[in-house]
Amino acid sequence: MSGSTRIQVVDSHTGGEPTRVVVAGFPDLEGDTMAEKRADFSARYDHLRRGLILEPRGSDIWVGALLLTTETGFGTVFFNDVGMLGMCGHGTIGLVETLHHLGRLSEPVIHLETPVGTVRAERHENGEVTLQNVAAKAEVLDLAIEVPGIGRVVGDVAYGGNYFFLVRSGLEDLEVTFANRAKLLQVTTDIRQALIDQGYRGENGQIIDHVEVFGAPTQPGAKSKNFVLCPGTAFDRSPCGTGTSSKVATMVARGELKEGEEFGQESITGSIFYASFQSKDGQILPSIRGRAYITAQSTLIFDENDPLRWGIV
Ligand code: PYC
Q1: How far apart are the first and last CA of the chain?
Q2: Full-model pTM
Q3: What average pLDDT values come out for the chain (313 residues) when binned by 10 residues?
Q4: Domains parsed from the chain with CATH numbers
Q5: CA distances from 258 to 112, 222, 273, 277 (A)
Q6: Count of alpha carbons within 13 Å of 269, Cβ hemisphere only?
Q7: Which of 125, 137, 193, 266 lies 20 to 30 A from 288 at CA?
Q8: Residue 87 Cα: closest atom of ligand 1
Q9: Which residue out of 95, 192, 228, 268 has the highest number of ligand 1 atoms within 8 Å of its CB and is therefore the one to mutate?
């Protein structure tokens, strides 16, 4: 296997959602900022994204994080089954746990550069991680759209490091339970398609590629339960860090959350993120607290003779 590519990874899950952190073996990327490095990753190494994330080594539920070092600490580029992400909350928590596992967390606090801004993350002694996200924003409240096969659905467009449509009404008969996940996946995919077809985008022109639906919580400490459609064909097993940040922004816009107040967001698998926010220079900075567990540390081998080494597309 002399011509094979070897990449070292550490796998974890945060509230059920897996993160694969690439710790060695990835080619150097061009660019000074994480946004430039992400562009280079996309342009030259998309086969590595596919090989790292898709079957036979992974599946559409995985999120990857390429660990990079910067002059001031760490940086990362997040990616998934269909492309690149802006920020990723569960992935940041997984990345901090990975640094701890590798003995590379010399202080509990890191400042992590991402393509959409720098986030602060702190690992607490009990193993939980609190991340202070990039600024979140509620861009449109109560947007009504007509979804073929479903009818009128009303929701908010918000940004929390990625773009979300947070459904508020129109799906009252849809139970937000794990048993109902296939139906939830279908309905949220239809909503995303309607948003795309009808030309709705974020203020910066980005596609609204995440859809969030809410239901009654079942866990003590949770105020709400969600189902989150990720870009592509998978749903988030965690409460979604950027989705919960978007929710914080809409709650603040509606006067439903005060600065410093914390609420529990339950996921479709029953895991919880605790969210709050700080107001700074007119911006909303959400904080998300959750926990990740390491599941594997391995060397992935991409055999040059394997026709499926760059993933099943
Ligand atoms: O936790 O922000 C998040 C996230 C985005 C996509 C999957 N998880």
Answers
A1: 24
A2: 0.97
A3: 88 98 98 98 98 98 97 95 96 98 97 98 98 98 98 98 98 97 98 98 96 97 97 97 98 97 98 98 97 98 97 95
A4: 4-128+293-303 (3.10.310.10), 137-290 (3.10.310.10)
A5: 27, 17, 17, 8
A6: 14
A7: 193
A8: 2
A9: 228
